[in-house]
Amino acid sequence: MQGSFNSPDTHKYSVILPTYNERKNLPVIVWLLAKTFTENQLAWEIIVVDDNSPDGTQEIAKQLAKLYGEDKIVLKPRAGKLGLGTAYIHGLNFVTGDFVIIMDADFSHHPKFIPQFIRLQKAHNLDIVTGTRYRATSKPSSPDAQPGGVHGWDFTRKLVSRGANFLADTVLNPGVSDLTGSFRLYRLPVLRHIITETVSKGYVFQMEMMVRARALGYTVGEVPITFVDRIYGDSKLGSNEIVSYAKGIWVLFTTV
Amino acid sequence: MARAHRVALLGTVVVISYVLTFFKILSVPLLDAKVADQIIPVLPWWLLVSFGSYCLWSIGMGLLTLRECPEAYNELLGEITEAKNDLRMKGVTVD
Ligand SMILES: Nc1nc2c(ncn2[C@@H]2O[C@H](COP(=O)(O)OP(=O)(O)OP(=O)(O)O)[C@@H](O)[C@H]2O)c(=O)[nH]1
Ligand SMILES: [Mg+2]
After folding, report:
1. Three-state SS sequence of chain A
2. A29 pocket-lining for ligand 1 (C-beta < 6 Å)
3. Which one of A65, A160, A226, A229 is CB 3.0 to 4.6 Å from B72, fit for a cystine?
4. Taking CA atoms, what residue in B is nearest to A158?
5. Alpha-carbon gap, residue A245 to A167, rounded angstroms
């Protein structure tokens, strides 16, 4: 489909990057994104939604805006830590592109996969393309996909992740192999639509978005990605998350 | 209708037909009555065990096929160094 932007592919890609204490990661992820977009001749912007991180992430973001341009690095901070789900909604208010990429700022999601997402989207005119750690091929199939995988996960983390996806898949059957991941490309109106219907928080949020997408009849493609667990900063997956995840599945089961 | 309602509806139909066959109110087509008498009482357990095996098999296979990608990690380490050097040169604070 033709876009309306004055760029080689007529589209513009807006990345929403929520950050909380990502001072070390932010400059590198922005550098990698800028490199990927420039090399692939894509029009882009990055919307940084920082929740007033105590480590001074915003100060770094300002330096990056100076370097890359304030039209490219758009800083839209919030006063305090208000959570990931609302960070996307906040960021969405400032998007000027026609496609939105949602990803983490901790390098678990490598920008090198974005051109593959875009190619798959174009080839099949998809509404959503999601990264998957659990597939070796893309869906619908495409020749440039390399097998996905993870690095830096111990057995427990693998088991929890596999169990969580199996549970959601069995109960809700959303037809997507990686429900807890959050590296995705959306058509802007599609993301706006889905996000207004989504009610949950935390890990359930990502899963609910896929369940809703399917229920609303949107088309979803999958590209295998490699996932390297965060190198800098702390991880916060605990038993609380697991319990609220199971509850979230139940709520979706009885409502969607 | 939410997914739960559809599943509950289907479940109710299945349970009712099972109870009716169990008490011989419905008969099993295409099956000898003697054979049916032996199968019907154990059918729920068989289903339970099958489902349990299916769960274990799915999660087990999921774990086995989850690929490790050390090459992505090594590539990333290189890129981080490159990015940091470049950014430092351009005046961005990287620590
Ligand atoms: N703005 C904002 N960003 C957040 C918040 N919580 C997390 N983030 C960011 O969201 C992204 C994902 O968070 P992570 O902490 O990596 O969560 P995760 O990937 O589930 O867990 P780990 O990587 O194992 O720590 C990162 O870029 C975080 O900086 C929040 O409350 N507000
Ligand atoms: Mg992460």
Report:
1. CCCCCCCCCCCEEEEEEEECCCCCCHHHHHHHHHHHHHHCCCEEEEEEEECCCCCCHHHHHHHHHHHHCCCCEEECCCCCCCCHHHHHHHHHCCCCCCEEEECCCCCCCCHHHHHHHHHHHHHHCCCEEEEECCCCCCECCCCCCCCCEEECCCHHHHHHHHHHHHHHHHHHCCCCCCCCCCCEEEEHHHHHHHHHHCCCCHHHHHHHHHHHHHHCCCCEEEEECEEECCCCCCCCCCHHHHHHHHHHHHHHHHHC
2. no
3. A226
4. B63
5. 10
CA gyration radius for chain A? 17
A chain contacts of residue B95, beta-carbon cutoff 8 Å: 23-24
Pair A7, A42: CB distance under 8 Å: yes
Q: What is the phi/psi pair of residue A90, to 5°?
A: -60, -50
Interface test with A, best of B1, B71, B79, B84 (most A CBs within 10 A): B79
Name the CA dihedral angle for B82, B83, B85, B91, rounded to a multiple of 10 degrees. 160
Q: What is the largest CA-CA distance in chain A?
A: 49
User: In this complex, which of B69, B92, B94 lies closest to A151 when CB atoms are compared?
Assistant: B69
Tell me if B55 and A166 make a contact (CB, 8 A cut-off): yes
Q: What is the ipTM of this complex?
A: 0.86
Contact B72, A133 (CB under 8 A): no
Per-residue pLDDT tens listing for chain A (256 residues) = 788 899 999 999 999 999 999 999 999 999 999 999 999 999 999 999 999 999 999 999 999 999 999 999 999 999 999 988 899 999 999 999 999 999 999 999 999 999 999 999 999 999 999 999 999 999 999 888 899 999 999 998 899 899 999 999 999 988 899 998 899 999 999 999 999 999 887 778 889 999 999 999 999 999 999 999 988 776 666 778 888 888 999 999 998 8
* Residue recorded with tokens 């989504």: A198
